[in-house]
Amino acid sequence: MSEPGKLFGIQKAAEADIDDFRQDLGPFVVAAETTRMPMVFTNAKVAGKPIVFVNQAFLTLTGFEEDEVLGRSFLSLIEHDSDPEALAEIQTAFEGGRDLQTQIRCCKKGGSVLWVLIFINPVRDKNGDLLQHFASFLNIDRDRELEDHLRLVLEESHYRAQQSLKALTALAIGALRGAVAQNVVDEFERSARMIISEIAKNRPDTDGSQTRNAQTSAEISHAPRGYVSREDV
């Protein structure tokens, strides 16, 4: 069969699934069509869990047309480079017919992606047999952007605090040396190194900067006695 013929057959099968879906769920479909929450239903009885229904809110969110998603596997909506653990959770939820809530990157038309919080629930008949999976989407793309920005701000704050403490420690050691007993200087230096080490340990390492921070206490302990660098003042 030619490629256009195959696509036509898939579309016809998807339309038949939608008719069955509407008959099975009746009034619920009307509610799903009008809600502003993006929603997708899949056929749980077919391998690949093909999509049998999407509402307008989902089409608006992703930019797809209805005929571009009907009949496709649900996982085709998910970015291939998404968290493998989240993908495995979705597959397990489908196979086990259980509820799931997770964050994932959803594909949009044109190749872009957005972060969504996805809720998956099984739909069963009166005998308890699994018919469909119902998935709703919450757009959290803006939240993730703000989260990433906040993380960068916090990382920079951690680094600046550590650098300030490093400079103050070096100045204090230089001032104490010769003014108090050496054991007092040594104890002060040891305590300062411990504090700086704790700051470095608790700082998120999203850009490799934790390695840079871990060197700070070593720089102090290996610096010449009384040495204060130009960077530190």
From TrEMBL:
Biased composition regions of type Polar residues, renumbered to the chain: 207-219
Span list, region Disordered: 200-233
CDD domains attached to this UniProt entry: PAS
Keyword Ribonucleoprotein: no
Sequence ranges assigned to domain PAC in this UniProt record: 98-152
SMART domains noted in UniProt: PAS
Domain PAS as annotated: residue spans: 51-97
Domain of life: Bacteria
Protein keywords: Chromophore, Flavoprotein, FMN
A Pfam match: PAS_9
Gene3D superfamilies per UniProt: PAS domain (3.30.450.20)
Listed PANTHER family: PROTEIN TWIN LOV 1
Stated name of the protein: PAS domain-containing protein
Provenance organism: Lichenifustis flavocetrariae
Lineage: Bacteria, Pseudomonadati, Pseudomonadota, Alphaproteobacteria, Hyphomicrobiales
